[in-house]
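One such given next:
>
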Amino acid sequence: MEEMIAVLLIVSLFAGGSTGLLPEKEVTEKLAADPNQTINEIRASADQIITSQENVTTATQLLAALPEREEKYQIAIYDIKDKTGQYSEIGSMVVSQGATEMLITALVRSRQFKVLDRVNISNFMTEQTLVDQDRTTGNDGPVTGELTGAHYVIDGAITEYQIDKKTGGLGLIIAGKGGQQEYAVASCAVDLRVTDTTTGEVVWAKSLKKEIIGERISFQVFSFMGNNIVEFESGRGKQEVINLVVRTLLEEAVYQLSVSEVL
């Protein structure tokens, strides 16, 4: 059954006009002649087919350099909110609303803690409720009463976002650098804290602020950290720049927490 589903998926993929290593007709013929071999060949060529790449920053290497702990504290993650109150010209939030997910990824990458998701706990509780109400068959679903408890809670917020008031709130400052040369600055700050779940004591807190400088590459167009391009007048791409700053700040905060010996 699994092989049949795989064959149908592959045929539909190529029939839909997607590009791959082989033309549609050849793939169809190979699948008809030897589906198992064709599937294995495609799987073996996965590196050539996959176009996505790992989403990392320069700070990611700090987490990768940490030795994995044998004994890990259980740490629950709650929502990291945007408390800057900043909105774009069209009314959307400028700062990333994905900070919680970024923090979870950073903590998992650090390999220092047992990370407990409390942001989506309603999803887990729904699954457990289905079991309690005998709405699942056999022994399917979770074992109730076995959720892992947290030694600590980590939460916080994005607390600052730099805005150039003179440009109508585009979120970038244009300034002179070395005479007539112009550059752009984007900055924000995050505040995180770790609380002991037994005593309620805040055992660790950190406020980090970062700014990145974009070099001018043409009229009102600036490049931040390589591929992040911002058109200053239209604001295109500025959110991606701030998201990069937020991810970097969170990764650096996790690194500092990991080496602090507080936990």
User: Anything to note?
Assistant: Strands lie at 73-82, 113-117, 152-161, 173-176, 182-196, 202-218, 221-224, 228-231. The longest strand covers residues 202-218.
